[in-house]
Design a protein that fits this description.
single chain; Rossmann fold; alpha+beta; elongated; 2 domains; binds adenosine-5'-triphosphate; 39% helix; binds magnesium ion
């Protein structure tokens, strides 16, 4: 679990602001769910033999003896919240959420035990048009963040019936090649054989290449859905790669699944992943409701924005107010208040704690501020303030306090 330090916050704000701008533009509304749910919710939805449920959840008993879990992901929570609050009753919903998720994974770059996800979920819409909308939404976000080289991988898992037919053939094939399976795959063979196709073990790749492909077992409806989605993406100019081995780590997906992947983050290259989960609402006690969603790993997005060097929002202040002497300390606090009222959005750091002029100027410089305002005995006597530009060569100037705000506005606008 990691701290987000003050120098990193501006970049977080920037990315979160871009996310908000995009989901807003598509008419999605925010939902905020609790961070703790009954353990059963995740076991039933994500699937008992998935990595998350089998070995990654933070599960504990509360004082009543109920088994609770820190949420490892948001989709199950969102569905639970929607059912509980009647949000899916005869209506569609377009929702988004953002917040920390918890998984007890082996920590490494891009993989944390508390990490932030922003997720988007759409309910009550069965067609491929909403699938395309979600993908176009993410593409717009990459563009807004100035990201390059994030590639879309697309697959369909078909209907549960098609999956079952494929599973039978797959298990037969894998059993025939049993001696080539590693330990983890042997475990998966019984309960979740599709996930073996997702194995990164180089020794197994050739055997996996030859396995029966789900795409060959697709039902007509899933095939048509997938083809229409592709034509919608083609029309929108969004390129993609069909990856028949993309199966996703959670059990509840069917039909469309997708991931946005970058090569710039090493092994943890998936920044966004999602898919259709038409059966989940009903499984959790709601009416049958088609659903699709995705989640983005915010730390990975942040790392990517940093790696590609696009944006560097800085921490610190715009203006540093230097206050020399006791009288200046008194008057300075009031002057600072007036300036904050007159200059909305401007960050004014007022010096506290006294000290020499030289010392205060050092702090002004370190704060990153573009302007230092100096208030000392002379300035007070003449109702003025000395304005010094810290980032460029320019003579300092004495400005009357009555026109100070207007003068500063002009200086700050000049870039
Ligand atoms: P992975 O294959 O990387 O383990 P996953 O399939 O477990 O990913 P999802 O549950 O689909 O991931 O989560 C969606 C996104 O959340 C991922 O694509 C990734 O960007 C991010 N994410 C998942 N787990 C972590 C983690 N432990 N630390 C940071 N980000 C994560
Ligand atoms: Mg994982």
């Amino acid at each position: 679990m990691h701290d987000i330090l003050p120098q990193q916050s501006p970049l977080w704000h920037h990315i979160e602001g871009c996310v908000r701008q995009v989901v807003h533009a598509y008419g999605y509304d925010e939902i905020r769910m609790p961070m703790v749910e009954k353990t059963e919710l995740f076991v039933r939805t994500i699937g008992e033999v998935t990595d998350i449920v089998a070995k990654e959840m933070y599960t504990f008993e509360d004082r009543n003896g109920d088994s609770l879990t820190l949420r490892p992901e948001g989709t199950a929570c969102c569905v639970r919240a929607c059912i509980e609050n009647g949000l899916l009753y005869n209506q569609t919903q377009r929702l988004w959420y953002s917040g920390p998720m918890f998984r007890h994974e082996r920590p490494q770059k891009g993989r944390y035990r508390q990490f932030y996800q922003t997720g988007v979920e759409a309910y009550g819409l069965a067609g491929p048009d909403i699938d395309a909308e979600l993908i176009m939404m993410t593409a717009r976000l990459w563009q807004l963040l100035g990201l390059k080289g994030v590639e879309l991988q697309l697959n369909t898992l078909g209907s549960p019936i098609a999956r079952a037919a494929h599973r039978e053939k797959l298990v037969a094939y894998l059993n025939k090649n049993r001696e080539q399976l590693d330990e983890e795959s042997l475990l998966r063979l019984e309960k979740n054989p599709l996930r073996i196709l997702d194995s990164k073990n180089p020794a197994m790749q050739q055997m996996i290449e030859g396995a029966p492909q789900l795409l060959d077992y697709l039902d007509d409806e899933s095939r048509e859905h997938f083809e229409t989605l592709q034509s919608l993406l083609d029309a929108a100019g969004i390129s993609y790669q069909i990856n028949p081995r993309l199966v996703r780590g959670l059990d509840y997906y069917q039909k469309t699944v997708f991931e946005w992947v970058t090569r710039d983050l090493g092994a943890q290259g998936t920044v966004c992943a999602g898919g259709r989960y038409d059966g989940l609402v009903e499984q959790l006690g709601g009416k049958p409701t088609p659903a699709i969603g995705f989640a983005m790993g915010m730390e990975r997005l942040l790392a990517l924005v940093e790696a590609q060097g696009q944006i560097k929002p800085a921490a610190g202040a715009d203006i540093y107010l230097v206050l020399v002497g006791d009288l200046a300390m008194q008057q300075g606090l009031l002057l600072a208040e007036q300036l904050r009222s007159a200059l909305p959005g401007v960050r004014l750091l007022s010096h506290c704690g006294g000290g020499s002029f030289k010392n205060q100027m050092k702090k002004a410089d370190k704060s990153g501020a573009r302007l230092a305002l100096i208030l000392g005995e002379d300035e007070i006597a003449q109702q003025q303030v000395t304005v010094k530009r810290l980032r460029e060569k320019a003579p300092q100037r004495s400005i009357g306090q009555d026109v100070l705000a207007a003068h500063l506005k002009e200086l700050l606008q000049k870039d």
